[in-house]
Amino acid sequence: MAGSEPPMSPNLKPIATRPRGASAADMEAGGHSPPSSSGIITPKGRGGEVQSESPTMGSDSSSPWRRFFRGGSRYPASDVDSFSNSPRNLMGFSPKAGSSASASRVSTPVKRKNRDKDYSSKDYGSGQINAYPPAAAGNPAAVAGMMTLAEELLTKKGLSLKDLQEDQEEYADTGEKEAIPKNKRPVTKHWNWLGLAIFLYYCAAAVYYFYIRSTRTLNMGYLGYGVLVLLIEIISSTATFGYAILLVKYSKSRRTKGLPIPKKGQQPDLDNLKFHVRVLIPCYKESCELVKLTVLGALKAPLPKDTLRTVYLCDDGKDPQKEEMVRELNAEWGCLEYVSGRKRDPNGETNGKSNNLNHCLQNVIYKDYYPQNAQGPKIPTSEVMVVFDADMVAKPNFFTKILEVMLDDDCALCLTPQGFNNVDAQSDIFNNLNLSFWEYMLPGTDALGYIACTGTNFCLRCYPLADCGWFPTFTITEDYALGMLMKAKGYKAGYLNEYLAIGEAPEEIRNIFRQRSRWCKGQMQVLFSRYCPLLDTGLTLGMRLLYTSVTWCYVTNTVAVPCSVLVPFIALVFGVYPLVLNRDFALAATLYYTSSTLVTMYCTNRKHMKPLWFCIVSCHLLWFTYAKAQLNVLWKKITKKTVVFKSTKKKGEDDGRTGKKKRRFCAVPQNVGDMEGTLDAWVLVCSFSISMITAIVGAFQMIDKPYTAQGDFRWFLALSIFWSVYNMIPPALFIFYCYNKGQLFEDFCSFCMTLSFMVGIGGIVCTWLVPDDYNLGQVLNVSLQFFEAQRSGKVPRISNTPWRGNSGLWDSVLLPNGKNYSLLGGWYDDGGMLKLSYTTAFTVSMLSWAYYEFKGGYRSSGNVDFGANTIRWGADYLMKVSVTNITSAGASMQPIFVAQVGDMARDKLYWGSPERSTIPRPATYLSAARPGTDAMAMSSAALASAAVAIQEESLQVADVYLQKAIVLYQLAQRWRGYYAKYVESGKMYPSVSMYDDLAYAAIWIYIATGDENYLNDAIVFYDQTVSAEGHVNPNPYMFNYENVVPALDLLLYKATGDQFYKKNVQDFVKTWMNTKSRTGDIFYTNKNLAKAYPYGTLQHTANAAFYTMVAAKNVMDNKFMLYACWARNQIGYMLGDAGRSYVTGYGSVQPMKTPHKAASCPPVDVTDCTWESAYYTTDPNYWQLRGGLVGGPDDSDAWSDDRDMNNPANAVSLLNSAGFSAAMAALVDRDINMAKCQQGNGFIQTIMLKAKGQPDAAGQRWWEGV
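Structure for cellulase, as requested:
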């Protein structure tokens, strides 16, 4: 009868509270008339008419009873008047518009934010809802069979329904517990003090590491490449930081028994229901058997007291088999509905699961509630829903546990972890990622207030879901987006870390790749949508970063893994390195990587270590999958196309691929499955191949040449090998996994885990074993300090050598006019107390040349003033010894040039400090009657070069130097002769050529003035020295004070561009660099020190190193690094590459007993300085002399540290240190270090050099030719 209310028995209970397995007789005893034979109710739309054969249903479409009885449920008529608290309201059936139900209690969030919900207005169509009432006659056999099936399911999952029921019943009998006090909530939050310590340690280590990386390791020659690798490291560290911060706090389950279940026979209080649980099980193409297990799990799990349940099977595949299954199960349980018939978008949907769930919620359950019906009532807080994926089976205590958390009305969502019965913690290289997520990440995010939702096994209050626009459909990962939207609206959630449902993880590799790709795509969709968490003003800054970090991890993984694979490959094969290895980096890397390991491997159970290590492995294996997913989303975003949802294939699922399989050249491994043409697996094979080739190439290079030229093991190659082996492990596991997942694979996993830690430790050890490169700027400063220690006269109060005082204060010369002329100042030549103008002049010219050519080296090392003052100290003395303005009675007299101050014989007999010396110090000078062209011309060159060098610092002083240089040059031309004939020190520093000195002076005056006359003079004098004096040099390739012809070639080529001079320069450089020579003018020791025959010392090698740097800059056509690295190697030998330093005051093993009077003498208040106390003692010198280069080792690299003043190998001198300091300035200016010199020296160059039969060439790039 239309519009009439059907008579109903008052003792009839709702189907959710009806005793299970009720027979037809029981129902008839209750006055219930049987339904129609079909039992199918098909609504035609919202408010549409429905035809029914049931005599108890009214035909009035506007009657609330029609909606009230949807699904065959029948309620007593007495419930009609109290609808707001009645079962009909709780079941989700709407009253008439404007009824009192609109005042139902609703959870109020902390804050609200109005958002457009365009994604919730999708038309799902009318659909089809089938409900099946209990069978008219009971079928005990069928019931028993289903109970057995459920019991088998629980047994398979390791559960016992009987034990749980007994425990719950015992708990229920102990009291009438209504709610858990707040101080005894099932989930509590705590600080993790150990996690906080690890987090702080990681932050400090990361800051220090990246400071060192950016300031001390980028000087490798390819700044762009180094910066790129550094940026990738920084990007990668952000993911670790995001994970580390989650260790600071955590939420913890108190492991309560859960809410009490009803006593036996106790029925729910329908007027005071705590919850009505809507269980939604979305499915598509899963097998009916798999879905049935999930449905039975949801039905069999006991409910707490005063709780109703309705299970909805949301079938998007419209499977008749599933429909029949629901019909059969509903005959027993009576609270199960089959929901299907949704209209699917023929062009594909972004999220079919969300659309499926929303269809059930919007068109079936809450069709007439707000917000679906603007005039309808709000959804009560007692309305909660639970979602189970089609393969997730609830444990018996699922509802009693999760609803205990939901007792708090402020809790909008409670999430539980997903357990998998097919994930082996000892061998699953993909799915163990879940353990890190459930056990360590989510407890941390929950404690920080983050709302997480993972798509299944969660309980959600329905009104907040509706307030957020239902399940998001704009992204594949609706769970991630839903949690973010709920947080933005101010809702709260909880995470119950108890495994209350069990399912199956994908095992076939293709399904794993598809699942992870879907996760990545979905989160990238959110990032590129208008719901981007970074731009969400409803989120706090911390929450914005936290939600973004989840997506950001995919980006970091995509760039970090291929970089990690390619860097060692590029280093060993092509010889291009991204960073400089030094002690600072070793310390920073040790701290950083140990802290990173503590973060990633932090665990509360040692059994978790291997699964956590598998997380690292899986990240390595999935980088290409993530990269494809990100590019796919970006491309779809640009082209405005839809990213289509692809579900993970479950066991028994029909994937639609039928027919005869294609024949393949080789069988597909059993654990791979059909990869559908994707390249993911092949990329991992390529990754393994690249790493293996890298390791083999590195091993070949180590076997071929295990030591450097200085005898150091090539640990940097070992580091790259360890790195490549570490990169081989994940793809090796993948390849093994494709073919075998048994015990053998488990053992292989254990081996690989151990190996990964061993090679990681080995790599850290290698960073410490690689010899630390020298701070060349510091060495330049040290070299200049030697000239401070050699000062004579009044020394400045502030000095790097405070142990030196005033000395030589009475040095003077008696002029021809009878006046005494002070010679205060200058440098002592060596460890004695002689002041020699010739060696001082050559020293000044070398320092000035270096300052002129490589001033940037002084500037970058902070030695500009130090260098200029050093030059001026020597030049000022040369100005003083050039006495050119002598008058007597108003008449000019012949000038003189003082060549020596001090007596050699007396100086050798005295061993004491210059400050306390009282021995006579006569002066020896040159004049027209005692000519010394060579010494005077060299002094002229020194003053002219000094003028060129310091003109920026003091133009006035430079002009004074230049004028004196011109005067001396003119005098040297008139006074022809060799200074050694008249000066005692000529025996120690003989000179047999003068034209080269005149040419040297002329070319420097030309550089200072630009006067072509001086250039012409230089050319003329050059020709004269070659023709008249070429035969007197024992070795034309020895560049020193006695032979400056090589310097003339350099300077004249720069001035004229004449190829003749260029060829001479090239010959000089190539002769010194011929590392094959063991005899001849230039030969090499076993430790690759280049020496000049017959009496070459480190002085000549240092001069050649400086010369080569100038030639590489101004003359040589290309391959600058080849020449610069040769110079670096020679200077490196002097600094310690050979096992000891030959520079005083520098290096761990340095000369300590050089014959130096001032350094060996203790102060007066300690003891007297005598031969016995200062010279013959075996103790080191009392004071540390810094920057002095000794003569050096013999031809066999042997050298002994002793205080023998007659052995030039142990002596320090101006000439030794002049070229050394100049070479240091050049290396610092061009920023040459060993890292740069190793660039390009890879496998390719080694093979090319061997093919051509040529020796190693440090610094030469393979692409520049050999």
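The first strand starts at residue 128 and ends at 131.
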